[in-house]
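Dear colleague,

Thank you for sharing your sequence with our group. We've completed the structure prediction you requested, and as agreed, I am returning the results in plain text so they can be pasted directly into your records. Please verify that the sequence below matches your submission; if there's any discrepancy, let me know and we will rerun it promptly.
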Amino acid sequence: MNRLLRTLLTSALAAGSTGLLFLAALDKLIMPAIVQVPMVTVPDLRGGTAEAARERVAGEGLRLALRDSVFSESAPIGHIVDQAPGTGEEIKRARRVFVDVSRGPRLYPVPEVTGGSEREAGLKIQGGQLRRGTVEYASSTSFPSGVVIRQRPASGERVERGSTVHLVVSSGSPSALKRVPDVVGLPIDVVADSLRKYEMTLGAIRRRTVDGAPGRVLSQTPEAGARAPRRTAVEVVISAPPAANAGEDPR
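Please find the predicted structure tokens below.
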């Protein structure tokens, strides 16, 4: 009986070993010979649309799969920002290529800055990932000097990061004296607009022959920082090339 059991056990072990050897051979040698899956080089899909990418990978025998939609400052909506596997990697045919698709730039709400000081407005705008744009001054009977009267864009609007918010700031009562801005060094073609933002106007323009860039403001009257009634005409002297002697300011 013992001899019979030993014989049966030996036969079972031998059969088990043979089975394991067969499975190993099937996995390593036989199956690869039967099923040959070709390798495919992953194309660069970044920058194109998802639809174009789907057609392109299909032509390579691959499949496209959406991994995520992400904000992007550079890629238009619906265009591919990133992919996995990456460009140039080799994968088996019929595998999936995962892509991240742009949902456009992140939009930021414009903060409410009217009713506060110009400095407070600047801090709020900067804190909202935006930039302060032009500042224009206007007389007001409702808002004290230095308080923001209007803003553009309006509060609550959603804009791209780094967009500018333009301000109109009270310069006080219409009868109050206004500060004259500094326009020395500016080209003459922007002076009128710069003065307008401070409720001043451009007065007489005289020329002085000097070396250097022509058309730049050399001096102004009243001087920068002086106080003057609104709509005061600010006279300027601008540079002229040596050949343009006509109308030269003798001072």
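Summary note from our side: DSSP finds four helices and 15 strands in the chain.

Kind regards,
the structure core
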